[in-house]
Known about the structure:
It is a single chain. By secondary structure, this protein is mainly α. The protein has one domain (2-416). 84% of the residues lie in helices and 0% in strands. The protein has helices at residues 2-19, 23-59, 63-98, 103-119, 124-135, 140-162, 172-197, 210-243, 247-263, 265-283, 287-320, 327-340, 344-359, 363-416. Helix 2 (23-59) packs antiparallel against helix 3 (63-98). The chain is globular.
Amino acid sequence: MIGIWSIMIMYFADSYFISKLGVEPLAAVGFVLPMINLLSALCFSFGSAASSHISRAYGASDFATVKRYASQALLIAFGHALVFCLFGFSLAEPVFRALGATDALLQYILEYADVWFYGCFLVIIPMVSNSIIRATGNTKMPGIIMLSVSVVNIVLDPLFIFGWGPIPAMGIQGAAVATITAYSVASLCSLYFLGIKLRYLSFSTLFYKPLEAWKGLLSLAYPALLTNLMAPLTIGLTTAFAAQYGVNAIAGLNVAMRLETLVMVPVFGLASVLGPFIGQNMGAGEIGRLRYALKWAVRTIIIYCLGLYVGLLFLGSELLSIFEITPAVEAEGLAYIKWVGWSYAALGIIIVTNASANVLGRPMVSMFITLGRLFVVYVPLLFILKKYNGLEGVYLALGLSALVMALMAIYSWRHFLPKKLTSV
């Protein structure tokens, strides 16, 4: 949780410093957010695939397999990240125009995105490394790595955005430079921990049955990727509809979603360790423990998220006022919290169910839940409720879609949770 919180605070600080440049730069970063989430989806997909194999192998004390999958997962993930960067450079402008960016905003968007795409392939190294390390039960090192990203980024943000001494003021572009620099430091830290400190990386394992390892990783990573792509696609769709209501609506959505991510850190933290915990107990044959763990996690999430929503209703205005935003932008952010915040518990149930299904080698379960949420529930409700309630209807559709699929997620437990020990 501390590690994830540090990353969320980093993005929170990004928005804070960028908000000092004006509403347009803040809205511009809102357009880039789906691309950032898209890369995160790629990272999480390969991280969850590696975690599935490694946690079960670690639970069964098969350390040779741990090294094998750790090395191959990093190699494959890095190759996919390079492809992502190339497509980002090539398709940035038409994609942002399709999301509803105006000519005035596009200038700011491309200033940020061009730098970000130049070095965003570095993001995948620490994120996948963290999943590998966490799969063995070590959460301290991933926390240190994420904390290093946050500290470096927050320190560099004001220096690069506003300038200091010999460092020129780069504006919104400086925020992207700070982020890429921070992830460069984190990449070196994660490779040191994974390769030298823990000795989980081995060059020789890259040549031992590589096709078998690739098949094992990709058979889990690609369905997980399709699942994880639904989150940035949902955000992109919501952003596109918010763009129809003006720059204040986009900026308000951006800061509200930044706040949402920050306060949901306990849920993300729980999900990040629940997967490895379940995988290790599966490998060790402790079926009762893994089933109980998922039920305990869901109860905890429901209690936390209901209390969180009540707190946001009373303190949302004060929290959003941290950003230097206009009353109109703040009102748009509060509308998002009001109409979406009540569904955070449902979203948490979906998150931990997906993490559990993926680590147990059942990515199709999470793919069904996530695809169903977007295409079967959210999109139809979006057009219906938007017609009668405008942007608030869009937000309400987002919450209702989470509730429906959370119920489906709980129902799916009987199909993917093992009832007795099976072959690992």
